[in-house]
Amino acid sequence: MTLLTCVSTSISVLQRCLKSILIPRLPIYASTFIEKHSTTRQENEDINPVITSSEFAYKIRQKLRSESYTPRTWRTHPLHLLPSDPYIASDPANKSVLNWIFLISCLNFSFWSEKEGQPDRYGVEWRDKWDSDEKKLWTGYWSLVASLNRALADDNIPITDPNFYSSELLCPDSLIEHVFRAAPQSTEPIPLLKERIAIMREVGSILCKDFGGSFQGFLEEFHLRHNGEGTALQLVQMVVDTFPTYRDEFVLNGEKVRLWKRAQILVAETWAAFFPATPTATHPIFPGARGPKIQQLTMFADYRVPQILYHLRILDYPPSLLGTLHNGTPLASGAPEEISLRSASIIAVERVREEILRLFTEAGESGEDVVSSVLIDFYLWDLAKKIESGEEKIEGMETAELVPIHRTRSIWY
To answer: One digit per residue, pLDDT tens: the chain, 413 residues?
Structure first.
């Protein structure tokens, strides 16, 4: 099975995989988010994509229509390193931004803490935004971003340069450990430090050996291979073919299940970072006639989005899984329950996308070029963090409890 058939037809592939391998009674309901089917809450071991109503799809559609949530929202995050705007091909900052996005995506995994909710959990103290002197404690995914930014801006360490971090001589393990040093009040280190260092050495060496020592060089080779007509999906394919650390896949009952969270998020982050101010303008990373075709990618199956999908009553968990989550019991990477949870999340977000498209069609508008599972994932992830922090609350629709995230310690997410 190729990546093209796996990702671009993810629903049919995952439905078949889930039905035959993971959760045999997983119901795949109609694509409309109408009243919940009466048989969806069964006392069984299924993780069900449950369509409860159209309210949430309507909420996202309104965000998209008002342009309050677009790919350009990526540029509003205070820790993001931004490329020139408008895009200038000759600007050397583009190379730096691309290397920054690449390394972050390589290390974008396993930020949950054994001390969740406690003041001494792993965190990184850095500025509250690039052009500020105010300090802030960053946790979770943002602790990674803050660590790298601090190294670049405060410590004068070129930590995002593959020529630097691939070299044990220039960048010894002890220096990388220093880059990820915790805030004074933290009593735990960044998770999986040894694995992160090994990944940095591996991907950096590949870039230096085959692509001129930068992610920009990798993209130049991508453009050559596809005559400038390559799409986001084809870039995902090349990333996975090139870098073993991005091959997030498992074999169950003799059949391969490909999830590839970080490969897709690398491409999606690159797409969003360089998204032009005018949507009809040519995307500099995907300049071909077809454009990015970002709609061919799925959501990024991690531990945060399933949490918000359950809260919104779009996923339904069996009692046994709820018990596992509340008890903080780990789920092993590659276990059927863990893959079921991630795969059901992919299907659920596809159903959300289908419903949003239906709402656009009913309004006499086209949403095909506006709505993608990538953008829905970005929105859901941000929403989950805001709800968890108390910054935002879902209004106007019935929600379930905000259960703890599932705990799987791995390099895949």
So the answer is: 333 333 333 333 334 433 332 222 222 222 222 223 222 223 335 666 554 446 788 888 887 777 678 899 999 999 999 999 989 988 999 999 999 999 999 999 999 999 988 999 999 999 999 999 999 999 999 999 999 999 999 999 999 999 999 999 999 999 999 999 999 999 999 999 999 999 999 999 999 999 999 999 999 999 999 999 999 999 999 999 999 999 999 887 777 888 999 999 999 999 999 999 987 899 999 999 999 999 999 999 999 999 999 999 888 888 999 999 999 999 999 998 898 889 889 988 998 999 899 988 988 888 887 889 999 999 999 999 899 888 988 887 889 999 999 999 999 99
Q: At what angle do helices 93-106 and 141-153 cross, to 10 degrees?
A: 140
Q: How far apart are CA 292 and CA 315, in angstroms?
A: 29
How many whole angstroms separate alpha carbon 126 and alpha carbon 148?
10
What does the DSSP 8-state code read for residue 68? S
Closest to 410 in 3D by CA, of 108, 188, 144: 108
What's the whole-model pTM score? 0.86
CA–CA distance, 176 with 174 (Å, rounded to integer): 5
CB within 8 A of 64, min separation 6: which ones?
70, 356, 367, 370, 371, 375
Sequence-distant (≥ 6) Cβ neighbours of residue 399 within 8 angstroms: 311, 312, 313
- Read off the DSSP letter of residue 25: T
In whole angstroms, how far apart are CA 191 and each of 69, 99, 122, 188? Answer: 32, 22, 9, 8
Q: Which two tokens stand for residue 106?
A: 């390589």
Q: For residue 344, which of 23, 57, 43 has the smallest C-alpha distance? A: 23
Q: Which residues are identified as catalytic?
A: 302
Please, is 281 exposed, middle or buried when counting C-beta atoms within 10 Å of its C-beta (0-12, 13-18, 19+)?
exposed
Q: Distance between alpha carbon 294 and the CA centroid of its chain, in Å?
A: 14
Cα 190 to Cα 188: distance, rounded to the nearest angstrom = 7
The answer to whether 381 touches 304, Cβ cutoff 8 Å, is yes
What value, to the nearest 5°, has the Cα angle with vertex 379 and ends 378 and 385? 95
Query: Which residues are bridge partners to 252 per DSSP?
Result: 255
Residue with tokens 């009466």: 38
Is residue 218 within 8 A of residue 263, CB to CB? The reply is no
122 with 190: CB under 8 angstroms? yes
Angstrom distance (rounded) from CA 108 to CA 123 = 15
